[in-house]
Amino acid sequence: MNDSAPEAPQAPEEPTAAEDGPAGGPEHDPAAPAPLGVPRTHTGNAEVDDRLERLADADHLATDGHVEVYEDVHRGLRDALTALDARPGPPAPSPSYGHRS
């Protein structure tokens, strides 16, 4: 019979560089921000294209940061559409047009 005390359990060892992950780098964190790889097609309208490119900013943010980017893009696109309605067209006829005094 052995009178020595049983060995205490040891904590698991930290992984070595070879065990970290691919190419010896840190393991991939699935919760980390990652680009979605969604292509953005240029429209030919510089203002709209700038707004759509802003969507790429969300690729590097945590999910809770996406809302701010999406709202900014939405606001910019809405302003661009509103500006289309505000562009001057042909002048409206004056109220006295065709009216004889």
Query: How large a portion of the residues is in β-strands, by DSSP E?
Result: under 5%
Estimate the helix proportion, in percent. 25-40%
Number of helices, where a helix is a run of at least 4 consecutive DSSP H or I residues: 3
Order of helices and strands: HHH
Structural class from helices and strands?
mainly alpha
Q: Give the tally of β-strands.
A: 0
Low-confidence stretches: 17-21
Radius of gyration: 31 Å
Mean pLDDT score, rounded?
Answer: 75
Largest sheet: number of strands, sense, barrel closure: none
What separation lies between the terminal Cα atoms? 128 Å
C-alpha geometry = rod-shaped
Give an account of the 3D structure:
The protein has 101 residues and is mainly alpha-helical. Helix content is 34%, strand content 0%. The protein has helices spanning 17-20, 46-54, 66-86. It is rod-shaped and about 125 Å long. It starts with 16 loop residues before the first helix and ends in a 15-residue tail after the last helix.
